[in-house]
What we know:
By secondary structure, this protein is an alpha/beta fold. Helices cover 32% and strands 26% of the residues. The chain has 10 helices and 13 strands. The chain has helices at residues 20-24, 31-38, 52-67, 91-98, 115-128, 152-155, 213-235, 252-262, 273-276, 283-293, and strands spanning 2-12, 16-19, 42-45, 76-80, 106-109, 134-142, 160-171, 178-186, 194-196, 209-211, 244-247, 302-309, 313-320. Helix 3 (52-67) crosses helix 4 (91-98) and helix 7 runs parallel beside helix 8. Oxa(dethia)-CoA binds at residues 29, 33, 37-38, 113, 152-153, 156-157, 213-214, 216-217, 220, 250-251, 254, 278, 308-309.
Amino acid sequence: MIRAVLKGTGSCLPAKVVSNEELSAKVDTSDEWIRERTGITQRYIADDTETTGTLATGAAQAALDDAGFTIDDIDLIILATATPDHTFPATATTVQHALGGKGFPAFDVAAVCSGFLYALGTADSMLRTGMAKCALVIGSETFSRILDWEDRGTCVLFGDGAGAVVMAAEDVAEDGPGILATRLHADGEHRELLWVDGGPSTTGTVGHLQMKGREVFRHAVVNLAGVLREVLEESGTDASAIDWIVPHQANLRILDATARKLGLPMDRVVVTVDQHANTSAASVPLALDVARRDGRIKPGDLIMLEAMGGGFTWGASLLRV
Ligand code: UT7
C-alpha cells in the first residue's frame, strides 16, 4: 500500500532567547507564575532579519539534509502559518525560491496551532493519490509580531520558530512505516476565544492576538481527547502501543491532561514547551525534530501527533517512523 513515509526532520530557531526573568522586567509577571501555570521557562524571539520565511527555509533545508535529499527531490511544499511574511504571496513560494525550487505547487495553510496537522493531512492525501511524490511540510511562525506586549495574559505564552518534515510516497507493507490515520476538525462557533483582531479585509491592519485562556484550555482538553480516540479507532490501535506523543506545546498542564486521558505516563510525551513556549504551527514539527535528534524517537516507533488552536481547529495523526 502507498503511504506517506517520514524521511527527515529539521528545525530552525531565532538566535535570541528571552527568559521569564527578562520578560518580568518589562511586563507585570513573574518567573514563578509562568512556570507554574504553563511550564514555560524561556522562548526564542525573532530579530528584524528573521522572518517566518527565513526560519521556514532554515528548517526545510535541515530536513532535506537529514533525509539526504535536495530540493530537486521535492515536488510539493505546504507551509502552515498564521504569521506569513506578507498577506500574499504564500510564504511557501518564498521558501521554494530560497531553496532553489521551481514549478511544483507550494502553498500556505492557515489553521493556527493545528496548522501543521492540517498541512500534514493535506500532504498525506496528495502523496497517497499520486498528486505528489515527495513533500516538504513546514510549520513556521513569528508570533512575537502579533502579540500585544502589554497584555501579560498572552505575551508570556508564545515564541517564534520553525519545524519541517520531508514526507515521501512509498509502497510499504501493512506493518511498515508511514501515516496510519489522520483526523481534522474545526468549529467556528468559538472563533473569538482565540483570534487576532485585525486583517486585510476588516481593519487593514495586522492586529493583535486575543485569548480567553481558561476557556481555550477547557475546550483543548475535551477536543484533543476526542480526536485521539478517533485516530486510535480508525487505525485499530490501542493507546498502550504508542511510543511517543508529540503534542502541540501550549501548556504543560494540557500535555499532562491529554496523556492521562490516553492512560500514558508523561515520560512518553515529548515536552519542549519549557524551552520554546507556544510556537503555534511550528511546535509539533519542532518537538518531533528535537526528539528524533536526541535519540528518543527511533525507527519503527509509533508516534501520535496532535494539536488544537484558534478557530477552533484541532487534529491528530498517527505515524510509524
Ligand atoms: O495554542 C493554542 C491553544 N492555547 C492554549 O491551549 C492555551 C490554553 N490556556 C492556558 O494555557 C491557560 O489558561 C493560561 C496559561 C493562558 C492561563 O492560566 P490560568 O490558570 O487559566 O490562569 P487565568 O487566566 O485564569 O488567570 C489567573 C490569574 C488572574 O488573576 P486573578 O484574576 O485570579 O487575580 C490573571 O490576571 O493570573 C493572572 N495572570 C497573570 N499573573 C502573572 C494572567 N497572566 C499573568 C501573568 N503573570 N503573565
